[in-house]
């Protein structure tokens, strides 16, 4: 397997777009912490509120709880702008409404980088991805172009934005680039730990933030100089 290249860092602002609370925390948050420490401005947009994410908790109770956990999680990596859409957790559909919502956020925040989650059918280890991740990731990639076309979504009454330099997908099986998170690894662990109720309902390796994230970071680092690292698929616009 080929070595990974270093993610470009010649930018100052980014928008993270993911499906659920906890999505970016399972691997990508270490890069976010590194970049906010560099002074980069980063905001989050979540397509849903994670209301269907805990089997033992009613969605009406679960949604607000997971929103608060996500806000705390973002604070742990230096992010204080966190926005939520109201697409239904577990039933998010790729389509024009989702593209419109994401394009609106891109036009408002004017990022130089748009970061999303893995939208491929599988994870790096071969396990199947889920529909929400695929729909949001693919819609995000398309919304970057939508945001720059003034004749699309005119009803938003927002000026087009063509300033996105890079689009990156975290935890992709087709990763091309990586980020050294040695100095921000602890912050990434704290960011995942902030999802207390979600973690309490899990079982297995993913319920233990430090060893799970360390294992992933070490595996990526084997292709990136032996440091703790997190990976991204860098997409060509």
From TrEMBL:
GO terms for molecular function: hydrolase activity. Keywords: Hydrolase, Zinc. Gene3D superfamilies: LmbE-like. Transmembrane segments: none annotated. Its EC number is 3.5.1.-. Signal peptide: none annotated. Pfam families: PIG-L. InterPro entries: GlcNAc_PI_deacetylase-related, LmbE-like_dom_sf. The keyword Zinc applies. It comes from the Bacteria. This is PIG-L deacetylase family protein. It comes from Lentzea rhizosphaerae.
């Amino acid at each position: 397997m080929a070595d990974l290249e270093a993610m470009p860092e010649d930018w100052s602002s980014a928008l993270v777009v993911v499906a659920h609370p906890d999505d970016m925390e399972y691997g990508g948050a270490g890069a976010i912490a590194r970049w906010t420490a560099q002074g980069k401005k980063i905001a989050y947009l979540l397509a849903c509120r994670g209301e269907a994410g805990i089997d033992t908790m009613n969605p009406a109770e679960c949604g607000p709880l997971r929103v608060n956990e996500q806000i705390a999680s973002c604070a742990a990596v230096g992010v204080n702008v966190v926005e939520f859409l109201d697409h239904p957790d577990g039933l998010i559909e790729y389509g024009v409404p989702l593209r419109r919502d994401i394009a609106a956020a891109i036009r408002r925040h004017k990022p130089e980088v748009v970061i999303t989650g893995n939208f491929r059918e599988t994870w790096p280890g071969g396990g199947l991805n889920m529909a929400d991740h695929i729909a949001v990731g693919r819609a995000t990639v398309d919304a970057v172009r939508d945001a720059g076309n003034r004749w699309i979504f005119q009803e938003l009454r927002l000026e087009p934005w063509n300033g996105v330099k890079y689009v990156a997908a975290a935890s992709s099986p087709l990763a091309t680039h990586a980020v050294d998170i040695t100095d921000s690894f602890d912050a990434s662990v704290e960011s995942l730990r902030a999802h207390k109720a979600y973690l309490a309902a899990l079982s297995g390796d993913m319920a233990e933030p430090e060893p799970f994230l360390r294992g992933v970071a070490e595996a990526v680092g084997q292709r990136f100089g032996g440091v703790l690292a997190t990976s991204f698929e860098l997409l060509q616009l």
